[in-house]
Amino acid sequence: MCGITGVISLNSLSVNIADAKPMVDKLIHRGPDDAGYLFFHTSCRHRNNVSFYQNLTDNKHKHLTELLPPIENKVLQRELNQHDWDLFFGHRRLSILDTSSAGHQPMSDLSKNIWIVYNGEIYNFKEIRSELEKKGHQFVTGTDTEVIIYAYIEWGIECIHKFNGMFAFSLYDNFNKKIFLVRDRYGIKPLYYTMTNNKTLIFASEIKSILECHSYKSSIDHEALLEYFTFQNIFTDKTLHKNIKLLPAGHFIEINLKGSNENIRTQQYWDFDFSEPETIKDEREYIEELDRLFCQGVKRQLVADVDVGSYLSGGLDSGSITAIASQYLPYVKTFTLGFDLTSASGMELNCDERKKSEYMSYQFKTEHYEMVLKSGDMERCMPEFAYHLEEPRVGQSYPNYYAAKLASKFVKVVLSGSGGDELFAGYPWRYYKAAQNNNFDEYIDKYYLFWKRLVNNQQINKIFSPISGEVKDVWTRDIFAQTFKSHKSVSTPEEYINHSLYFEAKTFLHGLLVVEDKLSMAHSLETRVPFLDNDLVDFSQKIPVNFKLANLDKIIKMDENEIGKIHKTNDGKIILRKAMSKYISNDIHSAVKQGFSSPDNSWFKGDSIDFVKETLFNPNARIYDYLDKGITQELIKEHLSGTKNRRLFIWSLLNFEQWCNIYN
């Protein structure tokens, strides 16, 4: 796991070498073990004119100490300045596979014509390597990075269809004068990019690296801000940083440098496809195949040359992963986050699941570690949390920050249960909302209203009155509907539910993955998601809805008022519960679905009320440059008085205020 960054000049201007080291340094938390730089002439006149400089940040590789740090060294600085470089690749390395110096990046083939900076893990790289060796390719490292290079040489960019894993990389092909920016199927690894006015393309694993490049001029994207405060997420490729985009999951960008006019295209190479199978098998067959593929997926993601641990929240998903991992590893270190519920009330009294996780730790014989959060912990972490998250995204995710902090003290790699809910229908009350419709437009209307997580349209229009001119042409329903770019003909409740699963995998899950990556890598921790094994995903999308959801026939006969009363239930993930029943105790695999969240509803109007008031009722609060102070504060008061639960809205405001103080 690593951090990548780079600059591609698509004009006659040279890359500013003074930007290189700051851009790489901003990613040091993603890769504290090593750093590397590549400067390149891509012009046909300089076909083989390559300069490659390495900067090692530790003392592990004594035999490379003669390679001086390039950016600080004045002699090398002058040499760099004598050339007009039009390509820069930078890399920070977190050593997971082949921890020797052989894994240094940027990495090339033996001819020094194919170069890559790569962040991720290809779990089936050994199988691909074996296939390539039979075709005559030779390898000098034990890394998956080198496998990507020779897979590209053998199959071209179509090689990405062979990769089972998580990845974001940029590859330069000097033979064909092409550059690729690639992101994995599901968006587990982020890749940001921007094109400046002078035709300079900048990319990086994190936005803060792009901000170090002088070619980019920072400002806020008001349209993205409206999108976030509608959905508490950003569904498009926008970010709060204007003109910086997040490459969509399952996409790549190809830049063809041949000719006088560079040809840049973005292509989607994979997408989710939830649909009912043409022939439905016996449920037992689905259960047996699910069991096999799940175990295979977990085993694949245990490949590492460092210790691997697992989150253990007390629920079905992380418990199932830990159960399987403990069969293949001599011991597993597990990590649980709990909450001090002294001042909690109502449903939030169930937020702490430590007893369940402790029992599973005993059952699977893990080395178990716990951390208990109190109300003040949110306040303490907010500046650093917002800095690493880089922009507000889905959920109240500061507990994830602390969970990663805990795990990083003991391991470099941790397994997470993300994806289980979205693949196997873990939130039945969501899908029931829009299971019955007269047409697709009615479905969009229903589901759009459900996913407006913070405030309604009338309130949001008033809240954004200070910047109404900038967002007057933004229709968030259209943004929502655009997620279903090419929806299939639908008529049955099962088909509508499959569309809901598609939507949540594309938006909600994607947001969770972005958050998980940022907050784990803030602590130099690699998070892996076994539920997003390619074979498991492909299979799960074709499991009939009736095997995922219980009582569907009864639900579709209810009216909307009755459906609206359904909330926490164990009607979801039925087939996964059955498949995992041989590994997980009954009280776990049959439990009512419970998300991982802190008791902030209680804390915001109790222990943390002073922090909320000092931040959001501050006359100098930065958020009120964009939001109407009167309307916003009235909504906050509704929560503080106990009239309405607006914890998600308050969290979003607190997060946005921190963002303004750091980035705006």
Labels describing this entry:
664 residues, 7-stranded antiparallel sheet, 2 domains, Glutamine Phosphoribosylpyrophosphate, subunit 1, domain 1, 39% helix, alpha+beta, 6-stranded antiparallel sheet, globular, 29 helices
What assembly state would you assign to the polypeptide chains in this entry? single chain
CATH class of the largest domain: Alpha Beta
Distance between the termini: 29 Å
Largest sheet: 7 strands, antiparallel
CATH architecture of the largest domain: 3-Layer(aba) Sandwich
- What is the alpha-carbon Rg in Å? 25 Å
Total number of strands = 18
* Helical content band: 25-40%
The CATH homologous superfamily of the largest domain corresponds to: HUPs
Model regions low in confidence, pLDDT < 50 over at least 5 residues: 44-71
Mean pLDDT: 88
Number of structurally distinct domains: 2
User: Could you tell me the strand content as a percent range?
Assistant: 15-25%
Structure description:
It is a single chain. With about 675 residues, the protein is an alpha+beta fold. The protein folds into two domains: about 1-215 and about 245-270, Glutamine Phosphoribosylpyrophosphate, subunit 1, domain 1, CATH 3.60.20.10; about 285-425 and about 455-600, HUPs (Rossmann fold). The protein is about 40% helix and about 15% strand. It is built from 29 helices and 18 strands. The strands form three sheets. A seven-stranded antiparallel β-sheet has the order 3-2-4-1-10-9-11. Strands 5-6-7-8-12-13 form a six-stranded antiparallel β-sheet, with helices on one face. Strands 16-15-14-17-18 form a five-stranded parallel β-sheet, with helices on both faces. The longest helix is centred in the middle third of the chain and has 18 residues, at about 285-300. It is globular and about 70 Å long.
